[in-house]
Design goal:
Number of strands: 2
Number of domains: 1
Shape: globular
CATH superfamily: dinb family like domain
Helix content: 40-55%
CATH architecture: Up-down Bundle
Oligomer: single chain
Number of helices: 6
Order of helices and strands: HHHHHEEH
Structural class: mainly alpha
Length: about 180
Amino acid sequence: MTWRAPEIDRRSEPYLGDERTMLEGWLNYHRDTLLHKCAGLTAEQLRTASVEPSSLTLIGLVRHMTIVERAWFRERFAGEDLPDLYDFTADVDAEFNTVAAADPEADFAAFRAEIEAADAAAAGHDLDETFPLRRRDGSEHQVSLRWVYVHMIEEYARHNGHADLIRERVDGVTGD
């Protein structure tokens, strides 16, 4: 039997709640939206690039967001020392450029596991809790957990827009 990306019961975006409820709710909505964009597709369809010369694929986006979840919540905020998931010394965009050999079923499992770990890393911490962030230009800033949530929502929203276009190219499906 051919593996297909699982269907997802996407959580609705929140309409009411305190700040933490809103931030977590919108982040979960966008996490679910990325999976929703992949639902029902085969491994080969998930590996289909958007348009030449871009290497952007749906499975590449899932792999990228796995790394982003890991980096912001666990490595930067929680200070965990974790190994790289891909060989970034050989290719800084390895999560996008090595999808020909990707195992989407394993990548989906890794994505879900990383979300659980990211949520656990943030649980019980105040949104005002900060950590130092060194930028590529060498500058250093204090960044709050609140900033991480807002950034993650922005990152998912941007990539979910990419996912919309890729999904339409793959099988013509459009919509939210």
